[in-house]
Design brief:
- This protein is α/β, with parallel strands linked by helices and 302 residues long.
- Helix content is 40%, strand content 25%.
- The chain folds into three domains: 84 residues, Arc Repressor Mutant, subunit A; 99 residues, Periplasmic binding protein-like II (D-Maltodextrin-Binding Protein, domain 2), CATH 3.40.190; 101 residues, D-Maltodextrin-Binding Protein, domain 2 (3-Layer(aba) Sandwich), CATH 3.40.190.
- Strands 7, 8, 9, 12, 13 and 14 form a six-stranded mixed beta sheet that branches. Strands 4-3-5-16-6 form a five-stranded mixed beta sheet, with helices on one face.
- β3, α5 and β4 form a beta-alpha-beta unit.
- The longest helix is centred in the first third of the chain and has 27 residues.
Length: 302
């Protein structure tokens, strides 16, 4: 028997007037109760009860063991209730990681609404354009564009997202629009540095057709919003996520270039470790994001 089993056994036994009464309460025979009590005393090396055929009484050691047993069992019960409740009611600290642009524009407002709905949850939102090791950094949920080959991580699609080629009308007024991907090599292209790597080789897709084009241009940045600002000023052609440029496409400040072509898949996913599914705060936040971005899980939704 485990220690907790012995505690539970003795907590019941200590409140019974006799072995016969204890046996009836425990649904055991009187000899079985006597043997188990003797085995417990041998394990502890102390006598816990004085017993006769008609009466049980606690020794001082037995009284202490019984009192502590009740306290410890109550603590265990409360712990189990708290853990069970934690799977049902979101509470505690939730750590989230995302890139600067999407994090500031979309995830920040989402977190504000989430903590309003769930006041027992605290959120720490870490924004960085460097990929983080979720386990090493203690991150519960990471937001990622496209999917990597991370071992041991699960992913839930939050929103559809395409990378689109675009430029300002002022740029296209000065430079004839490209008609094929190869024409991009003759244009000023705005490229973005990601994770210390210059992203100036653009992988483009048209249905089942794929191609790669190495582009050049006068300006590049490690910040997506700066790159979009440059595109708006007519400095070149930009390959950028739809979530970021959709408002400018709708307003006409940017227009699609090579509209039949788009960048490699960049759907937005929440990634997390499997064990975190046991936590209500993670599960409820994932459900919240899924519902919040439901309208964007289709092409053109931004």
């Amino acid at each position: 028997m485990s220690g907790s089993d012995d505690l539970a056994f003795f907590a019941i036994l200590a409140h019974q007037p006799s072995l016969a009464a204890a046996a009836e309460t425990l649904n055991l025979s009187a000899p079985a109760v006597s043997r188990r009590l003797a085995a417990l005393e041998r394990r502890l090396g102390v006598r816990l009860m004085n017993r006769t055929t008609r009466r049980l009484s606690l020794t001082p050691e037995g009284q202490r063991y019984a009192d502590e047993a009740v306290r410890i069992l109550a603590d265990i019960s409360q712990l189990e209730q708290d853990l069970a409740a934690a799977r049902q009611v979101p509470r505690g600290l939730l750590r989230i990681a995302a890139g600067f642009g999407f994090g500031r524009r979309h995830l920040g407002p989402a977190v504000a609404d989430f903590v309003t709905l769930h006041p027992e949850v605290e959120v720490r939102l870490h924004l960085s354009d460097r990929p983080l090791d979720l386990a090493a950094e203690g991150i519960d949920i990471g937001i990622r564009f496209g999917l990597g080959g991370d071992s041991g991580l699960l992913a839930r699609k939050i929103a559809s997202n395409r990378r689109l080629l675009c430029a300002a009308p002022s740029y296209l007024a000065r430079h004839p629009a490209p008609s094929t991907p190869r024409d991009l090599t003759r244009h000023d292209c705005i490229f973005i540095r990601e994770n210390d790597q210059i992203n100036n080789t653009w992988k483009l897709v048209d249905g089942t057709t794929q191609t790669s084009v190495k582009v050049g241009g006068r300006v590049g940045s490690n910040h997506g919003e700066v790159a979009v600002d440059w595109a708006l000023k007519g400095l070149g052609i930009l390959l950028r996520s739809e979530w970021d440029i959709a408002p400018y496409l709708r307003s006409g400040e940017l227009v699609r270039v090579l509209p039949q072509w788009s960048g490699a898949a960049a759907d937005i996913h929440a990634i997390f470790q499997e064990r975190h599914l046991l936590s209500a705060k993670v599960k409820v936040f994932l459900d919240f994001l899924t519902e919040r971005f439901a309208q964007y899980r289709r092409d053109g939704g931004w």
